[in-house]
Structure formats: C-alpha cells, structure tokens
Amino acid sequence: METYPTPADLAAADVSELSEMIHSLGFQNQRARKLIKIAETWIEQPPQKGKLHRTMDYPNKGNGRHLKPKETVDEDVEDCIEAGALEIAHIYGLGPYAWDSWRIFCRDVFRGVADGYNGEGVTGYKPASQAGNESDFEPEWKRVVPLDKELRACLRWMWLREGWEWDPLTGNKKKAAPALMREASDGVATWNEPVALNPHDDTTAKEELEGPKGPEALVPGVKAEDAAPAPKRRTRRGRNSSGAAAKSRAITPPPAAPKEAATPTVPASAKRLNADPEIMTSRLRPRAGRTDVIVSIPVPPTPSRRRTARK
C-alpha cells in the first residue's frame, strides 16, 4: 500500500517490480498482471452504488441466471443474493472469494448504510451481544456463507463474539455453550472444518466443532442407521455373460497337493556307499540312507572332431 496507494498507481506499476514484491506468494507473474488489470478496470469502470453486475451461480446455483451477461440491476438492492448481482462483479479476475470479502467488510460502507462492517453509525443498532437493540438493521456479513476456510473461521469468530455458534455449511446458528464461550475468551478455542450435519433437520447446526467422523459426528437425535449407506460399486461384466451365470460363478480353490510319503529310516549298519573311484564324482554321490549299489558302466571314448576331419 505504501508503494501503490491508489488504483492509478497500481495500474501504472511495472510488472517485473510488482512480481518481485509478491514473489513469496508464488505465481507472481500471473498475480502481478491480474492486479494491474484489476486496477485498470477499477479506473475505467469503478463500482457504482445502484449499479449491480450479474454474479452467475453465486452464492447458490441458479442465482443470476435471469440476467443476461452484460445486463445490470440499476437500483440499490439490499439483498444481492436474490438479485443475482453485485457492485464489483464486472471487475476482471474477481470471484466468490473476493465477492464474499467485499460483502463482509466493504458493502455496507460503500452503500452508505453504515460507517463500518458491523453496523457502526446506524441509529439504534447494537450487536446481539449488547442489550437495547432498537433497529432492524442487519449487517451484510451476517448473510454471507463463504466457502473459503479462512473466511469461515473469521465469521465463526464474529458470530461467537455475539454469543452464537454458527454453522458454516448452512448459515444457521444456535446459542453458544458457556464452555465454548470460556474457551474463546481464554483464546484456546479450536476450529476444524465441519464433518456432518443432521440430514433430516435443516434448522440444527453441527453439535461439536471437534469430534469423531462418520455417523457418530452427527448432531443428537440422529442414529447411526439413519446415515446414508455408502453407494455400492458397480462392476463391469462381459456382454455375453448372464446374470444367473455371474451369480452362480464362484472361485474354486486349487486342490491341495498330496503329502509326500516319509522316507523310511535305514539303520546305520545297513547303509552302504559305493566307493568306486571311477564314478565317485561331485555330481554323482549316493544320498545318505541309500542301500543299492551303483554299478560302474564303461563309457566308450568320443572321437575327436579334429582327428575325424584329418582322416
């Protein structure tokens, strides 16, 4: 902000210098070009109060589909979700994360309905944690249900300051337990991504911020058998294979090999080895316990090939 305090300064920035400044973030060249393009769009078409551009499928699928790509909503709309449009949706490179951040921290001030993101300056408005609220005003951040985990943690903390435990999946809330409030006050409260909600009651929030996964992680009143079973995996079969044949087909284990008969024990006195030097070689030695006699058979000499060739 010190180097580029205004959109005009950022639009005139050098890509290499800006890339060097944000090198530690990674993808610095792409990020630098995108930041410069955002600044240029901000100068050419700055956001205007009462002129909202289409946000396709934000925050829910189907939002904004009644508008054409270049069509705008030319009036100040409080509920941008129903309108399917937002003041900064036309700026290059922005998406749900930037839109959520704009709604949480900037939109109320930009529209001139409050001096801060939490209703500062609104006559008669006080946060839920303070008594004596005489206004129906609701800050924009209380209507945001972001997908980013950092924004979820931020909103959980903001809701917890007002005494509510907020469900990041549905936006529902319930009174925070005293133990959770003490942990938050002492700075020891932890935050994990939610694992499950009650599928039969959309008004309940997650029971614990930390807990076991699976059916045991559901809120009270949901039994394990109520959880949806895991889908069965389909297997591919041959075109000519019938269903009955596939069911009756079974894997037959190979037959067990017959056990070999034990070698009879021969007394040491009956053992007799052939000690004829003509056949006692390293390749032909009688095994221990062998009682038969190996007979020596004379082998005729093999004629040499050289002698045969000379003849």
Automatic annotation (TrEMBL):
Its main location: nucleus. The keyword Nucleus applies. One of its GO terms (cellular component) is nucleus. Residues 49-68, 191-311 are annotated as: Disordered. GO terms for molecular function: catalytic activity; DNA binding. Residues 258-268 have a biased composition (Low complexity). Residues 199-213 have a biased composition (Basic and acidic residues). It is found in: Nucleus. One of its GO terms (biological process) is base-excision repair, AP site formation. Keywords: Nucleus. Residues 3-65 form the HhH-GPD domain. PANTHER family: METHYL-CPG-BINDING DOMAIN PROTEIN 4-LIKE PROTEIN (PTHR15074:SF0), METHYL-CPG-BINDING PROTEIN (PTHR15074). This is HhH-GPD domain-containing protein.
